[in-house]
Amino acid sequence: MSLKCGIVGLPNVGKSTLFNCLSNAKAQSANFPFCTIEPNIGMITVPDDRLNQLAKLVKPESVVPTNIEIVDIAGLVKGASNGEGLGNKFLANIRETNAIIHVLRCFDDENITHVEGSVNPIRDKEIIDLELQLKDLETLEKLKSKNIRSAETGNKSSKILISIIDRCISYLEQGKSLRSFDFSNEDYLLISNFNLLTIKPVLYLCNIDEQSINQTNKYVNEVKKIVNDEGAQILTIATSIESEIAELENNDDRLMFLNEIGLSEPGVNNLITSTYQLLNLQTFFTAGKKEVRAWTIKKNSYAPQAAGVIHTDFEKGFIRAEVIAFDDFISLGSELACKEAGKLSVEGKNYMVNDGDIMHFRFNV
């Protein structure tokens, strides 16, 4: 699936370091603003122990995990909505993503320059929020001007659109982002067609120092207070430590390092899983002697849509899906055992796929 999550924030808060920890693609990372100009794009493997459990039982020739696309977008600054700091280009890069990881610097280090001169994650967040809100206001005003004449002549759909636009403009002018606006399902479907920046789901990532790994700090506490009414998830990660973990090639060395600093797994694993959920994604599996594979679909997808992720012909000629729940497969140990126990179900076009389903598709083209 071509869903992207963009890493955003002020210059020099740790975005590219985070990207390097997450992805095999190595972005340049340096102690000066606008080190990143063109967005760096990488594919990130989604950690899923269920894939390993299936592989142990099936013993396939290959195991293929699922992945998501991550984009490291250059740092925004005050005035980005008016073109400051190549702002229009960077905002356009954000528009192309489906969700946002907003990195906030939450540590002190006099050796690392801050573009605003001091560490203040609340101010930093407000700067980014304001620039995205201003750009959305500009987009909505242009959209309104295109439809207002039609609305005034009685066009029903234009009148509905103008009404939604006016409510969105009023909300943005209060300094609020549209992701927290209480849309009806119909209004949301209509307004989401215009790819507004502040409507995108967001995850706030507090970049902390090593001393704060197993405890909070004052900066993180401040962030938690201010985003409480947004319903957004907050994660903490020490990108400096994560970069050291990523450089260790031996798994035993990684485990030893993690144990020494009091972690059970790299922080990026939790971030990747959270990003997967932020994009409203889930996983189904195919399992055979040739390959055990994880596949990505949107939540609430139906069986033919899942089949289409494997190959478009599977969706076009969909007949049925043979489905085994993950827990049943693990407890019984094989597809044959599941069949004999009546745990394999045959589902049609109206079957909504559950996370973790093991599926085999029948089709005819």
Provide the low-confidence segments as ranges: 24-37
Structural class label: alpha/beta
Physical arrangement of strands within the biggest beta sheet:
2-4-1-5-6-7
Radius of gyration: 23 Å
Question: Mean pLDDT score, rounded?
Answer: 87
> For the report, how would you describe the main beta sheet?
6 strands, mixed
- The end-to-end distance, rounded to whole angstroms, is 23 Å
Tell me the series of helices and strands, N- to C-terminal.
EHEHEEHEHHHEHEHHHEEHHEHHEE
Oligomer kind: single chain
The proportion of residues forming helix, as a percent range, comes to 40-55%
Short note summarizing the structure:
This protein has 365 residues and is an alpha/beta fold. The chain is 41% helix and 19% strand.
Question: Could you please describe the fold and organization of this structure?
Answer:
The chain is of the alpha/beta class. The chain has helices at residues 15-22, 49-58, 87-95, 121-152, 156-173, 185-191, 218-226, 239-247, 251-260, 267-278, 303-310, 312-316, 326-332, 335-340; strands at residues 4-8, 40-45, 62-64, 67-72, 99-105, 202-207, 233-237, 281-287, 291-298, 318-324, 344-347, 358-363. The strands form three sheets. A six-stranded mixed β-sheet has the order 2-4-1-5-6-7, sandwiched between helices. The protein has a three-stranded mixed β-sheet with strand order 3-9-8, sandwiched between helices. The model is unreliable at 24-37 (pLDDT under 50).
